[in-house]
Every structure is written in C-alpha cells, then in structure tokens.
Amino acid sequence: MSTSTFEALELRGVGRTFGGHEALKGLDLTVRRGEFIALLGPSGCGKSTALNCIAGLLPLTHGEIVAGDRRVDTLPPEKRGFGMVFQSYALFPHLTVERNVAFGLQMQGVPRHEQKQRVKDAIAMVKLEEHATKLPGQLSGGQQQRVAIARAIVLEPSLVLMDEPLSNLDAKLRLDMRAEIRRLHQSLGLTTIYVTHDQEEALSMADRLVVLRDGRTQQIGTPAELYDHPANWHVADFMGYRNLLDGTVTQIAGDTATVNLGSFELHGHVAGPLAASARVRVAIRPDDVVVTASAADAIDGNAIKATPSVVEYHGREFSVTALTDDGLRLNVKAATAPVQGEPATFTVRAERALVFPEELA
Ligand SMILES: Nc1ncnc2c1ncn2[C@@H]1O[C@H](COP(=O)(O)OP(=O)(O)O)[C@@H](O)[C@H]1O
Ligand SMILES: [Mg+2]
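That is the input. Now the predicted structure with adenosine-5'-diphosphate docked in place:
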C-alpha cells in the first residue's frame, strides 16, 4: 500500500538561492531508510529551505535529489510520496479530526472501507480516539499537532518531513511529543527528516544530525560524534560548549596547543587546522571544568583563577559563573558549590579544551 520506498534518499549538492542570496548551498546527504535525521541550526540558516526543497514546495537551483534510482527533485510534491508536518499544523478548521486525517486518502482515491480503517488506525496511533469527531478548534495545540502527524502517517509516506513541529507547544508537552514522535518513527519504521533549532531536541531524537549555518553544512554525524568531536566552534557552541574563550596560539606540540588567554594559558586539543600564533577560540563544556584545591593540583597544567559570581543550585549539581581577573566569564557545573566571591582555581583536561581556528570555513 505504501508509496514508493527506497533504501536511500540522496541529496547531491542541493542548493537554493533567492535573488542573489544563497539560502542553502551544496547540501550533500544520504538518508538511509529507517533513519531519523535532524536538520539543526539557528533561525535563518536554511533548514526550512532544505526541507521544502526535499518536499518539492521549492524548486532547487542547484543539485539533485535521488530516491533509490529515481530522480525525484523534478517531480511535483504529490508525486514524491512524502508526508509533511508543519509548525502551524495547517489543519482544515471546518473538518473533523477524522475528515482531516482522511483527506489525503480521498485525494488518492483510496476505497472508502480502506480509508475508514486506515484513518481509525492512524488516530489510534496518535492516541486521539476520543477526539475523532471534534473540530481542530476544540483541541489543544498538542492535540492539533497529533492530528497533523496522523494526517501525514496515514498516507504511509516513504519519508516524513517535519518543520519545527513542536515550536508552538509548551515545554512539558514538547518533551512528551518528542518521545511520541520518536516512538511513531520506530514502531512504524518511518524515515524522518526533522527540522529544529533546539539542539537538545535534535540530540535526543535523531540518529544523525546535520548542522547548518548560513546555508552551509557545518557537520553531519551522530549525536555522540557531534558532542565529542564538533567540527568547528560554531557546532561546539550548538552542542553545549558554553565556554568559548578567545586567545592566541603560543605553541603546538603534536595534537596539543598552548593558548594564551590573557592572564593565563591553557593546554588544549588541536581541533582544527591551526597555524602558529593563530587567533583561536577554545571551546569547553561546563561539565568538563572542575574546581581544584590549588594550582598545583591542576590537570594538565591548566589552572584558571576565577571568582565565582553566581552559584545556582540545579538539583544534582551547581551551575557556577566565575570571572577571571581580566573579566573572562567561565561557566562551570560543579558537584559541590564553591564559595561565592572567594577566588578559586578551576581546571580542565587538555583533551576536553578544544582549540579551533577563529575563522569559520
Ligand atoms: N521565499 C523566500 N524569499 C526570499 N528569501 C527567503 C525565502 N525563504 C527563505 N528565505 C531566506 O533564506 C534564508 C533561509 O531561510 P529558512 O530556510 O527559512 O531558514 P530557517 O528555516 O533555518 O529559519 C533566510 O535568509 C531567509 O530570509
Ligand atoms: Mg524554518
């Protein structure tokens, strides 16, 4: 019953310009059947452009898209067999839940009895049985988004495209729906491309992530790959490396760089092409910074003197903001709270202080 399936959907150099502006540039990506891919990046980086190009809502200006051995970027949206879920739900307000979900099947001319069963199954899948005869206006935002999802999956699409589907929901519901979407993806064996600007959402849901910036692919990888080995400081920033410290390389020995950060030096891991005396950005995650008793105990010779200015209790740990003498701000997660206002020494393993060239490619 399913529309054409494929083992892999290949995006080859997919690009889209608006006027002279390159909203998406040379996206190369192979989506394997059954994969959950997240397109991640800040507002305006080209996520929706990429998704709309795949959906067929926007013509490409560069590249091609191939499903199996079939070129699909030349097909109109309805011939691609993809399902779409938007941030705005885009439901028909005058149709009941059932009839919203049935709409695509009617368009496809699916026989009535089969329509009925598939609509029922899809509605059960998103747990809306009790609401099947209501109008969208009688439902909460979360329920409306479930209708939109049911409407997409009822068509058994070979690929589901979701554009920030949870952005209009409150925080608690977003968490529930994340799990829900992931569950549907797995139990129905869907192939999903999911757009979000929320790195936590992307990391928790996706098998692989594509990080975009200004229309350009920054990195493609699993959550663990991106988290542990971000390709540049921009990706690191997105992956929760909340300390981005600007400095100058003074020495490089193997894969360890020594960086002058003004009032102190750090040894860090060379994480990109570095020249001697290059301007660099050192990326460190708050949980990789540790309070140490004295400079003598500093790991890898990395001692940072700083004074805690904010100490917040966060359940299991403390979130600490500390300032160095020359005003650098350090974000730290600590198991025990340092004393506010009292100078302390912080340290970080050289391996976990990633040294990136300041300039992005
Ligand atoms: N229809 C359009 N006409 C002109 N510019 C557009 C259009 N759609 C998107 N853009 C531009 O392309 C860039 C990427 O937009 P978009 O893909 O919507 O970003 P995102 O979804 O990541 O927020 C932005 O600079 C945006 O202004
Ligand atoms: Mg968008």
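Residues 97 and 132 are 5 Å apart (CA to CA).
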